[in-house]
């Protein structure tokens, strides 16, 4: 195994013959964008698969977040987590809103409810929680807070394709939810994403805003921007839908193998699966306690890399530690900082072999003392 690279992730690629059927349709219609027939078919298919009422397809998840915030006509401050990808806060910034970072909890690494309430001020207009690694936030508690203080809730559900909570799609909560279909995700359409909403009026408004603000009667209803998904992306997404259940099942098997091999390793924490949640196994994060494990996260990453194992420090550094966002760090973030300094995501993708998982796990467990002290 030492001579074979093990990637952190690989996008699932369906049979080309399946995709070619849609390429022939695109070439036949000569319509590449602007809500073509394949785009419409993909939207309808996604609504059925995800059990949601309305979907607005977008070119990528970042544009989806920007559009979701824009559609709600917010102002002032938006409370969010620093433990996420930078796009979460960038979407707030590009809407001329102020991000307010609050700490996470240790159990699921999601935004901490008590910290949300402490951060609410007269300037707060919304909460933007992230279902990190596809683990649902405390939905009911966030909903109660939002109603109590008359706040909007937009969920960054980038990691959440196919995730259900107690039999209901995680995207059916909050005012809006945004999923990413980036190539690194469980389900991809090359690039892409979707905003999930709950009524036809909101859907029409989102459709207009993603079309530079023009509705289907070519009337300018607001200051939008171009966030449309093209026919090629929609076609690839339709093909992926045929295989996504198989992909998730494969990732589940891989995750369970990791859990079996890494259970009870001193100084290594694996997040528990959440009751009543149908997970999609988008990532496999582990948190290292350097005192107990005997090595820092950074040294572990170096050690694994020398043995051709790719890893990623998701999510390090915190958004609040970037120069561009450090001025918005107005709250203490001790748990976020500790997790960011010690977390590592192990290789996980459709088709990863069991012997590759075993190699990763055994290599992680067998970091020698001299490597733990100094690499």
Compact description:
The chain has 375 residues and is an alpha/beta fold.
Keywords:
375 residues; alpha/beta; Aspartate Aminotransferase, domain 2; Aspartate Aminotransferase, domain 1; 2 domains; seven-stranded mixed beta sheet; three-stranded antiparallel beta sheet; 13 strands
Explained architecture:
- The chain has 375 residues and is α/β, with parallel strands linked by helices.
- It folds into two domains: 16-241, 3-Layer(aba) Sandwich (Aspartate Aminotransferase, domain 2); 244-373, Aspartate Aminotransferase, domain 1.
- Helices cover 39% and strands 13% of the residues.
- The protein is built from 14 helices and 13 strands.
- It has helices at 16-29, 37-50, 61-71, 86-94, 113-119, 139-149, 200-209, 231-241, 244-262, 290-293, 297-306, 334-342, 354-365, 369-373; strands at 54-58, 77-80, 98-101, 124-128, 152-156, 164-165, 168-169, 176-180, 193-197, 268-270, 277-278, 285-288, 343-345.
- The protein has a seven-stranded mixed beta sheet with strand order 1-9-8-5-4-2-3, with helices on both faces. A three-stranded antiparallel beta sheet has the order 7-6-11, with no helix packed on it. A three-stranded antiparallel beta sheet has the order 10-12-13.
- Helix 1 (16-29) runs antiparallel to helix 8, helix 2 packs parallel to helix 8 (231-241) and helix 3 (61-71) runs parallel beside helix 4 (86-94).
- The longest helix has 19 residues, at 244-262.
- The protein is globular and about 70 Å long.
- The mean pLDDT is 96.
């Amino acid at each position: 195994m030492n001579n074979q690279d093990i990637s952190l992730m690989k996008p699932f690629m369906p049979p080309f013959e399946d995709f070619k059927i849609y390429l022939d349709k695109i070439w036949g219609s000569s319509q590449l964008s602007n809500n073509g027939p394949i785009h419409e078919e993909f939207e309808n298919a996604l609504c059925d698969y995800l059990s949601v009422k309305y979907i607005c397809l977008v070119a990528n998840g970042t544009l989806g977040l920007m559009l979701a915030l824009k559609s709600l006509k917010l102002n002032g401050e938006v409370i969010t987590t620093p433990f996420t990808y930078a796009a979460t806060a960038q979407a707030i910034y590009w809407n001329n809103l102020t991000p307010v970072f609050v700490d996470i909890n240790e159990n699921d690494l999601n935004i901490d409810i008590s910290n949300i309430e402490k951060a609410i001020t007269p300037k707060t207009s919304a909460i933007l929680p992230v279902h990190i690694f596809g683990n649902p936030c405390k939905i009911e508690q966030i909903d109660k807070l939002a109603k109590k203080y008359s706040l909007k809730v937009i969920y960054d559900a980038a990691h959440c394709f196919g995730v259900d909570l107690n039999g209901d799609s995680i995207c059916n909560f909050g005012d809006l939810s945004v999923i990413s279909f980036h190539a690194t995700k469980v389900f991809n359409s090359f690039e892409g994403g979707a905003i999930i909403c709950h009524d036809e009026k909101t859907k029409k408004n989102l459709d207009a805003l993603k079309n530079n603000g023009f509705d289907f009667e070519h009337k300018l209803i607001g200051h939008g921007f171009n966030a449309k998904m093209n026919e090629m992306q929609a076609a690839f997404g339709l093909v992926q839908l045929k295989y996504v259940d198989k992909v998730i099942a494969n990732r589940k098997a891989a995750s369970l193998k990791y859990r079996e091999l890494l259970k009870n390793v001193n100084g290594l924490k694996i997040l528990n699966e959440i009751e009543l949640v149908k997970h999609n196994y988008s990532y496999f994060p582990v948190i290292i306690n350097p005192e107990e494990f005997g090595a820092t996260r950074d040294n572990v990453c170096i050690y694994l890399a020398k043995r051709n194992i790719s890893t990623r420090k998701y999510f390090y550094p915190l958004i609040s530690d970037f120069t561009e966002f450090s001025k918005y760090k107005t709250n203490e973030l001790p748990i976020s900082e500790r997790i960011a300094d010690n977390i590592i995501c192990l290789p996980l993708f459709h088709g990863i072999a069991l012997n590759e998982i075993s190699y990763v796990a055994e290599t992680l467990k067998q970091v020698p003392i001299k490597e733990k002290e100094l690499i």
